[in-house]
């Protein structure tokens, strides 16, 4: 045989062997495009619009398919039926947290969001119990959010109707709510430590949503050996950890076990109760990660949603006018909005739901993993396999939401103009891993937005038709493009 032909044949066999070896249980996993050695399906995925790639694959392979991000298989669930079936009907089996290399090495399996097993169950239970003890779901937290809404209004008044970028002003309000829960502390909106914290949180979210980080999550070795924005992210995380540990140390020195002030105090009390355990769960390092989880999830997603809401209202002034008409009719111009008002304000409630549906804040959810070998729709998904549940495919389902790419509060109104619930509304995910702070976020969005629109008319610097609402990035989260507006006092 010709030596060149022999070499080509040998290389081809090796290539096929590599492909075959990197696909364990190929006949058991759901179907999907054939991966290449080492890089998997990377070249077939648009890292700038992963959701669009998933939609294309679902049309070929169905609602359950397998992709290889690098050498590891990932099962993708696309559409309401399969997402609900996995997260509700098989909730326990799909309750693991999947791989997220950029964050795995930062949080090391600690905290709530990126932990697994008994640690996750214990910390989630602790967080839910403590948040209830601190007023979440009660009138006391509503009073606090109302007070913060007035602080926000006063800060907006200081712009004197001049053009401003609302990013940091809007972030201050939800961040202060989290701060009061975690630190028992309320920051002045000009406090430098506060502004540094907000800057780090915003920058970190942007980096996590960048195409480069999507590449790094596919090829984790890049995180160690290549320059890039991920290094800024890790530097920011080091700063956050240092800041949180400083706050924890202050609490250790002033702790009164008979009068816990905030989440840190409740945690330290639990830590003292488990003294003597060979493998303590309530470590200070774990507490620092929990605080990071709460600030990251409780500040950035809410403030981004608020910012996106204002952008969409500028783009659709008729919607803003109708919301303000309802606010002034139900609440008036002086009384502070409260949650009881929501049941009498179907259009405003629909508008807020439509903002959350339309912007699709966490397009692919956080990665899940199966906790055991799972038989799912005649496929066998091996224990530990990462599972992506496409929330975009649910929130933008054309059967449930006609013309899903159009911003329309009518998606949540019936023929009589009453608010209409939808099972497809799941911006906070679903099942056992549903966002711990969903109730607080909904409370903040309603009270902050109604208070702003009660007191100000929103004025765009450009014609509505020229306003761009396309996300600047749509990776980890959907980030709106930068914009300015004027808050004109009413």
UniProtKB/TrEMBL annotation:
<keyword id="KW-0496">Mitochondrion</keyword>
<comment type="subunit">
    <text>Interacts with chaperones HSP70 and HSP90; this interaction is required for initial targeting to mitochondria.</text>
</comment>
<comment type="similarity">
    <text>Belongs to the cytochrome P450 family.</text>
</comment>
<keyword id="KW-0472">Membrane</keyword>
<dbReference type="InterPro" id="IPR002401">
    <property type="entry name" value="Cyt_P450_E_grp-I"/>
</dbReference>
<keyword id="KW-0276">Fatty acid metabolism</keyword>
<dbReference type="GO" id="GO:0005743">
    <property type="term" value="C:mitochondrial inner membrane"/>
</dbReference>
<keyword id="KW-0503">Monooxygenase</keyword>
<keyword id="KW-0732">Signal</keyword>
<keyword id="KW-0492">Microsome</keyword>
<dbReference type="InterPro" id="IPR008070">
    <property type="entry name" value="Cyt_P450_E_grp-I_CYP2E-like"/>
</dbReference>
<comment type="function">
    <text>A cytochrome P450 monooxygenase involved in the metabolism of fatty acids. Mechanistically, uses molecular oxygen inserting one oxygen atom into a substrate, and reducing the second into a water molecule, with two electrons provided by NADPH via cytochrome P450 reductase (NADPH--hemoprotein reductase). Catalyzes the hydroxylation of carbon-hydrogen bonds. Hydroxylates fatty acids specifically at the omega-1 position displaying the highest catalytic activity for saturated fatty acids. May be involved in the oxidative metabolism of xenobiotics.</text>
</comment>
<feature type="signal peptide">
    <location>
        <begin position="1"/>
        <end position="21"/>
    </location>
</feature>
<keyword id="KW-0999">Mitochondrion inner membrane</keyword>
<dbReference type="GO" id="GO:0006805">
    <property type="term" value="P:xenobiotic metabolic process"/>
</dbReference>
<dbReference type="GO" id="GO:0020037">
    <property type="term" value="F:heme binding"/>
</dbReference>
<feature type="binding site" description="axial binding residue">
    <location>
        <position position="435"/>
    </location>
    <ligand>
        <name>heme</name>
    </ligand>
</feature>
<dbReference type="InterPro" id="IPR036396">
    <property type="entry name" value="Cyt_P450_sf"/>
</dbReference>
<dbReference type="GO" id="GO:0005506">
    <property type="term" value="F:iron ion binding"/>
</dbReference>
<keyword id="KW-0256">Endoplasmic reticulum</keyword>
<dbReference type="GO" id="GO:0030544">
    <property type="term" value="F:Hsp70 protein binding"/>
</dbReference>
<keyword id="KW-0349">Heme</keyword>
<keyword id="KW-0521">NADP</keyword>
<comment type="pathway">
    <text>Lipid metabolism; fatty acid metabolism.</text>
</comment>
<keyword id="KW-0408">Iron</keyword>
<keyword id="KW-0443">Lipid metabolism</keyword>
<keyword id="KW-0479">Metal-binding</keyword>
<dbReference type="Pfam" id="PF00067">
    <property type="entry name" value="p450"/>
</dbReference>
<dbReference type="GO" id="GO:0005789">
    <property type="term" value="C:endoplasmic reticulum membrane"/>
</dbReference>
<dbReference type="GO" id="GO:0051879">
    <property type="term" value="F:Hsp90 protein binding"/>
</dbReference>
<protein>
    <recommendedName>
        <fullName>Cytochrome P450 2E1</fullName>
        <ecNumber>1.14.13.n7</ecNumber>
        <ecNumber>1.14.14.1</ecNumber>
    </recommendedName>
</protein>
<dbReference type="InterPro" id="IPR001128">
    <property type="entry name" value="Cyt_P450"/>
</dbReference>
<dbReference type="InterPro" id="IPR050182">
    <property type="entry name" value="Cytochrome_P450_fam2"/>
</dbReference>
<dbReference type="GO" id="GO:0006631">
    <property type="term" value="P:fatty acid metabolic process"/>
</dbReference>
<dbReference type="InterPro" id="IPR017972">
    <property type="entry name" value="Cyt_P450_CS"/>
</dbReference>
<keyword id="KW-0560">Oxidoreductase</keyword>
<dbReference type="GO" id="GO:0016712">
    <property type="term" value="F:oxidoreductase activity, acting on paired donors, with incorporation or reduction of molecular oxygen, reduced flavin or flavoprotein as one donor, and incorporation of one atom of oxygen"/>
</dbReference>
